[in-house]
Write a structure and sequence with these properties.
Blueprint lengths: L5 E7 L4 E4 L5 E11 L6 E10 H10 L5 E14 L6 E14 L11 E2 L6
Parallel strand pairs: 4-6
Antiparallel strand pairs: 1-3, 1-5, 2-3, 3-4, 5-6, 6-7
GO molecular function, one term: DNA binding
Protein name: Single-stranded DNA-binding protein
Subunit structure: Homotetramer.
Length: 120
Amino acid sequence: MSINVVTLVGRVGGDPDIKYFESGTVKCRLTLAVNRRSRNNDKPDWFNLELWGKTAEVAGNYVRKGSLIGVKGSLKFDSWSDRQTGVNRSSPVIHVEQLELLGSKRDGEGGMADMSPDNF
């Protein structure tokens, strides 16, 4: 048995990066800052998020820099070979399966909404 589940709540670091493919598939990339509590001060941990399909479209339409969101997904690693050095590199990415818009209506985010693919 194996478990790979990540749940995060934080603020979006920049506007969504949306890509539309000829196949009709939609991909969205976001960064998410999640505060790490410590005795002296709160420092954010930054996570790269990847959303696909309807969830990506919702993020593209409703999420903006500074938005408070919650996500549930799984951890994966993107791997590539560096063009200049040929060294193999990797980067952790959260593959988001469920997106929650957590801001208030005052924030312009329309309140809490469950944007998991099952709701479309």
